Amino acid sequence: MDSTFVEKILAKYSDLSEVIPGQIVTVHPDHLVTHDNTAAIIQKIKPELKQYGIYSKSFPIISLDHVIPATSEKTAENHKLIREFVKTYNIKNFFDVGIGICHQLVMEKGLALPGKLILGSDSHTCSYGAIGAFSSGIDRTEATSLMLIGKTWLKVPNSIKMNLSGKLKSRVYAKDVILHIIGDITASDANYCSVEFHGDISQFSVDNRFTIANMGVEMGAKNSVFFVDEITKKYLNSIGISESSYDSIKPDKNASYIKELDYDLSDIVPVIAAPHSVDNVKPVSELSGLEIQQCFIGTCTNGRFSDLKCAADILKGKKINKNVRLLILPASRDILKKALNAGIINTLIDAGGILLPPGCGPCLGAHQGVLAPGERCLSTANRNFKGRMGCKDAEIYLASPATVAASALYGKITDPREVIN
Amino acid sequence: MRVWRYGDNIDTDMLFPGKYVYTCSILDEIIPHLLEDLDSTFSKTVREGDIILAGKNFGCGSSREQPVIGLKAVGIKAIIAESFARIFYRSAINQGLLLIECPEAVKSYFIRDEIEFNVDSGKIKIGGKSFSFPTPPSEIIAIRDAGGLLAYTRKKLKNK
To answer: Which residues of A touch B14 (CB under 8 A)?
Structure first.
């Protein structure tokens, strides 16, 4: 029987010859990703940790990224507790404050590979589908259980096939593609499904695929995935991983899908997700002129070198509008260094940007750019829920780095195609 | 029993704002902020045995355990929705919070309708009308019967 990507990988990890949608299987993931919430996870199982230890020291990947550097005694204490845990159990993959966002690091450090299965107590764990891994989010309690026994259950999901054809127009980016798709399919219509991207994907770099896979959860997907091609191989090679060290799983030709959707990429224009849901998607031109007080370029969705470069290309030699604050947040230390060496950080600071340390920053509303009532933020993040950036009476709009940079110049929402370099 | 009615796409920021996630971990800290940005009356007036009735995609967004733990602790008997987001759904299994997915039942509800259900048979009665909902597979019943995922894992470790 022909199988989809998720059917193949879940069969492989449950030692079965084949599986079907709806079937419950037991899997041993390759890794468990946790972040600041590791503190809450280990506090649930203090006696068990003492008695049984952890499943394996190379199993967890822990990064301090959500509220860094600590903002209060409580968050500082949590970080301390995590550092002690890492030391006690000799955990191999630990990234302390300032190294980067967990999802970026999992990709950068080659911890996610094609054909691997990774779970994490963060909803954007689905990002690693960018290079052909199966990855999905779980909650803290399940992460706790995994930390002890290294296995859990998964339901084999149905699969959705997205056929992407045609070439993207100038100043239209991966972010516009995924927002356009979510606007079409809605925030719930891929619930529990595995979303596969097919078609003319050679125009998307691994960075671009990361942006798209990252937002799979915003349409409800369990995982989203691109299949290994020359671009994936070249990227993995650049971080020192040879083709012989991974398993390129691809769906069979006659695999069955519950839905197939076709998108002509040449039809897509710059778009924005307006408050307060990610599927409330409109062309930038429809919101053009709306005043904004904060612009934010960063996060696990759009905090990579290519995103910062795209913004710098638009802002080079210019100043942002005086009524706007522009927050810049590289997704990792390596990205920050690369952007520094390329002069990109200088350009962004000269334009009026404020540099934040690599981490999640203002995305989750705990610090570093909380909004006031009545304010609007245009952000490259992945969520615009009410209250997301710390204030329920503020508004969050989501767009590509180019749209955010162009809008920062004028202090109002601006179509990036109208800005001349 | 009272019924709290909400619409589609009730996200995790509405259920428990992100700004409290890394500072509130015990029940006394969690409960006052439950549904804070969605319904400011909820945490003050919710009572043991109340039911939440919602539309599509309840619990979408982050991996956020506080709302699940909090709703269970204040005595929410069940959340009946047209559909649930998957991380929230798994989290509810892990904590033993009852979720019932039944779009027809949600759509047929009128204010002050009586709600009765039987989890084992997968039957729900709303305002005199009966509907069926899928019952969980045996793997999930085993987690529920153990008293949640951690209790289930502890049992497994002991029997190892």
So the answer is: 385-387
Averaged confidence pLDDT in chain A: 97
Q: Tell me how many residue pairs between chain A and chain B have CB atoms under 8 A apart.
A: 136
- List the CATH number of the domain containing B99: 3.20.19.10
Domains A5-264 and A270-418 in one fold = yes
Any A CB within 8 A of B65 CB:
yes
Verify whether the Cβ–Cβ distance B137 to A24 is below 8 Å. yes
Instruction: For chain A, give every domain's residue range.
Output: 5-264, 270-418
Looking at the structure of chain B, the number of domains it has is 1
CA distance A137 to chain B (A): 7
CATH of region A5-264, choose from 3.40.50.2300, 3.30.230.10, 2.40.50.140, 3.30.499.10: 3.30.499.10
Using CB atoms, which residue from A40, A192, A365 is nearest to B17?
A365
pTM of the model: 0.97
Q: What is the pLDDT of residues A68-92, one digit of tens each?
A: 999 999 999 999 999 999 999 999 9
Q: Which pLDDT value is given to residue B159?
A: 87
What is the SS3 assignment for chain A?
CCCCHHHHHHHHHCCCCCCCCCCEEEECCCEEEECCCHHHHHHCCHHHHHHHCCCCCCCEEEECCCCCCCCCHHHHHHHHHHHHHHHHCCCCEEECCCCECHHHHHHHCCCCCCCCEEEECCHHHHHHHHHCCEEEECCHHHHHHHHHHCCEEEECCCEEEEEEECCCCCCCCHHHHHHHHHHHHCCCCCCCCEEEEEECHHHCCHHHHHHHHHHHHHHCCCEEEECCCHHHHHHHHHCCCCHHHCCCCCCCCCCCCCEEEEEEHHHCCCEEECCCCCCCEEEHHHHCCCECCEEEEEHHHHCCHHHHHHHHHHHCCCCCCCCCEEEEECCEHHHHHHHHHCCHHHHHHHCCEEECCCCCHHHHCCCCCCCCCCCEEEECCCCCCCCCCCCCCCEEEECCHHHHHHHHHHCECCCHHHCCC
Contact between chains at B18 and A365 (C-beta distance less than 8 A): yes
- Distances in Å between the Cα of A250 and the Cα atoms of A141, A165, A332 are 32, 19, 30
- Provide, as residue numbers in chain B, all residues whose Cβ is less than 8 Å from the Cβ of A220: 57, 60, 85-86
Contact B148 A141 (CB under 8 A): yes
Interchain CB distance below 8 Å, A385 and B137? no
- Domain containing B89 equals 3-158
ipTM confidence score = 0.95
How does residue A167 score in pLDDT terms, banded at 50, 70 and 90? very high
Per-residue tokens: B67: 């709302």
A31 forms bridges with which residues in the sheet?
A118
CB atoms near residue B41 (< 10 Å): 9
What CATH class is the domain A270-418?
A: alpha beta
Rounded Cα–Cα distance for residues A35 and A39 (Å): 8
pLDDT digits (tens, 9 = 90+) for A288-301: 999 999 999 999 99
Residues of A in contact with B13 (CB under 8 A): 365, 383, 385-388
CA B102 to chain centre: 13
